[in-house]
Write a structure and sequence with these properties.
- Keywords: Membrane, Signal-anchor, Transmembrane, Transmembrane helix.
- The chain is an alpha/beta fold.
- It has 2 domains: 3-88; 98-431, no CATH class.
- The chain is built from 10 helices and 13 strands.
- It has helices at residues 3-29, 37-62, 72-88, 148-154, 166-179, 244-247, 292-309, 353-375, 386-390, 421-431; strands at residues 96-100, 134-138, 159-164, 186-187, 198-203, 208-214, 219-223, 235-242, 255-258, 268-272, 275-280, 316-320, 379-383.
- The strands form 3 sheets. The protein has a 7-stranded mixed beta sheet with strand order 4-5-6-3-9-12-13, sandwiched between helices. Strands 7-8-10-11 form a 4-stranded mixed beta sheet. Strands 1-2 form a two-stranded antiparallel ribbon.
- Strand 12, helix 8 (353-375) and strand 13 (379-383) form a beta-alpha-beta unit.
- Helix 1 (3-29) packs antiparallel against helix 2, helix 1 (3-29) packs across helix 3 and helix 7 packs parallel to helix 8 (353-375).
């Protein structure tokens, strides 16, 4: 029986129970002549018997659900305390912990041919499988399993874009692998003359397109190092100018997922209104020193304002929050690695201040955009993955990837399959709540 039907039965039971109590009190306090007490008592018993019989006819339908016991106290416990909460308050999917699971991974490196080699950890020698045996459990509910057929039905005839860096690509390839259980897409990038950093996949059975836009800063950026571009060279960021690589093609998409992260640890010079307003780790004595979360918040502000300014854009905008790295025993370029094989518990998680500040900066901008979007009839959705991924130091490729020029561990990206598949379980749950209409 559905939740609303159950609640209707509960409300009837509640009202009738109150009526019985009220009638009982009235009959006991009513001062009738002593000669009429037996008549009144018989009348009282008759009313109680009739109401009891009515209650008994109502209770059985409630107990037809195999998960609900037939006793009245348990019905109250299961329906009133849980179902009313479920109806009135949506569960926070993003607060929880990792628990052991019995299910096998949704796919393997043998069944999915669309994963990037550098995240194909099993192919490149990872022997432990413990990192695949955990599932995210929200504190107050269950996270639904990913259903490729249902997901494809939701997005039928639509398009979804991932805008961001290589972790955004990581996210996209996880989704492609998950969906390949229901339909195998075609790489149609060449039809659009797209380079490696800009890909499109098409699910012909569902007329559904998945695209990737390479934009690690989301805004206009330029190399600024006299020695040329390198893994830690200086970048100029124009915080109030969105990157045209995505703005020029995003207007027609139905869903857009913005994300950014690790590139904001590079040295940066910040520009606004065409002039330098500060920098992060730029080693320039005559420039105001700012923290990187200043620029991080600003680029999301610009991205959201830009997409809302596109006259033809009527899609749903999602923001995935910061994805933390897990280097131990040294920095990323100084021997750091990530060799753990189990998740952290909540108590073990190191809540680094920089993670909190970056997360805070982007969520504040998201909330402001969400409020403004409501005025314009545009939907915004938060994909808050930070807490869950802080607990997964075991989910990175580490050294299980193709050989690199430098023997640097990868503790930024995520193994496929792996904990990153949870991001698409989140996405699946979110899309089920999105209003399925477009603004005229």
């Amino acid at each position: 029986m559905g939740i609303l039907a159950d609640l209707c039965y509960e409300r009837v039971i509640s009202y009738m129970s109150e009526d019985i109590w009220y009638l009982n009190m009235k009959l006991h306090t009513f001062e009738a002549p002593s000669g009429n007490k037996s008549v009144l008592w018989n009348f009282h018993k008759g009313i109680l018997l009739a109401l009891t019989l009515i209650l008994l006819t109502i209770i059985p339908p409630l107990s037809t659900n195999k998960n609900l016991p037939s006793s009245l106290p348990n019905i109250w416990k299961n329906t009133t305390s849980l179902k009313i909460v479920e109806l009135e308050k949506q569960c926070d999917l993003f607060r929880g912990s990792w628990v052991p699971k019995s299910e096998q991974p949704y796919y393997t490196n043998d069944t999915c041919d669309m994963m990037f080699e550098y995240q194909n950890c099993l192919k490149f020698g990872r022997t432990d499988r413990e990192f695949l045996k955990w599932r995210w459990k929200p504190d107050e509910c269950e996270l639904p399993l990913f259903d490729s057929a249902q997901f494809l039905e939701i997005v039928k005839g639509k398009s979804l874009a991932f805008v961001g860096d290589s972790v955004a690509r990581n996210h996209m390839q996880s989704l492609l692998c998950l969906l390949s259980n229901g339909s195998h897409p075609e790489d149609v990038s060449l039809k659009y003359n797209l380079t490696y950093d800009f890909k499109r996949w098409f699910f012909a059975d569902y007329n559904f397109t998945v695209a990737r836009f390479w934009s690690p800063f989301l805004v206009k950026s330029k190399d600024a190092d006299q020695n040329g571009f390198s893994s830690n060279s200086l970048m100029n960021l124009y915080l109030d100018e969105a990157d045209q690589s995505w703005t020029s093609a995003i207007e027609s998409f139905d869903y857009v997922v913005f994300s950014a992260g690790q590139w904001f640890f590079r040295p940066q010079v910040y520009y606004e209104n065409g002039r330098i307003i500060g920098c992060f780790n730029c080693q320039k004595s005559n420039v105001t020193q700012l923290m990187n979360y200043y620029g991080y918040g600003k680029v999301f502000q610009t991205a959201f304002r830009t997409i809302m300014s596109l006259k033809g854009y009527k899609g749903v905008t999602l923001m995935r929050t910061f994805s933390p790295s897990h280097f131990e025993n040294g920095e990323w370029n100084k021997g750091g690695n990530c060799a753990r094989t189990r998740p952290f518990t909540k108590e073990e998680t190191k809540r680094e201040s920089y993670v909190f500040e970056l997360h805070k900066a982007q969520v504040e901008e998201f909330k402001a955009a969400e409020k403004e979007g409501m005025k314009r009839g545009l939907q915004f959705r938060l994909l808050d993955t930070t807490e869950a991924m802080l607990m997964r130091p075991d989910g990175h490729p580490n050294h299980y990837s193709p050989p690199r020029k430098e023997n640097v561990a990868d503790c930024v990206h995520w193994c496929l399959p792996g904990p990153i598949d949870t991001w698409n379980e989140f996405l699946f749950s979110i899309l089920k709540t999105v209003k399925q209409w477009r603004i005229p």
